[in-house]
Amino acid sequence: MWTAPWLKCIAAGCVILFAAGLPGCGEDPPPSRDDIFNKQMELPTLYLTTQTGQHVIAPASKGVFVDEKSGEVCWPAQACHNPDCPGVGIDGEPHLFIVPLPGGPKPTRQAAPDKVTTDHVNGQGHCPQCLKIRRLDNETPQLRQQYGNFVRPHVLPEAAEQMKEIEAARKARLEAKKKR
Length: 180
Known about the structure:
This protein has one domain. The protein contains six helices and seven strands; from the N terminus they run H-H-E-E-E-E-E-E-H-H-H-E-H. It has helices at 5-20, 33-41, 118-122, 128-131, 141-150, 157-179; strands at 44-49, 55-59, 65-66, 73-76, 78-80, 95-97, 151-153. The chain has a four-stranded antiparallel sheet with strand order 2-1-4-3, with no helix packed on it. The radius of gyration is 27 Å and the shape is globular.
């Protein structure tokens, strides 16, 4: 059956390779950057309607859109994480709102206005409930920045869990890239 000695060598080599497992075989390749980005854009995100404040959950990729049920424009929900925010819910949930505020001023790119007004701060993504207790006329730039840092996009609990998985995939991709 085996007439040429070199065929025996090839057959033995193949058996050894498959018995030991081919290098890199058996492992799933890490997801590509595009796959990671697409998963991130599919995360469930809370949106609020502009007129009635209804909660709408849609993929993060939707951006600003018109809700089919209500016909209202939906914006991604922002959350105020100021522990002293007057809008904090009974259960400790952060105050949710949208930026820009409906009927409010349009955001400006003015770097450092001489006189800061409620309209200016409102247009910059500050919590409307916190604005009720702030004294803008003598507020320091550092305090203004602190209030701005309290506001972050609202993250749904299920999206936070999925984001951990996405971060793990991102780290795995970087590790695999380092090994090459």
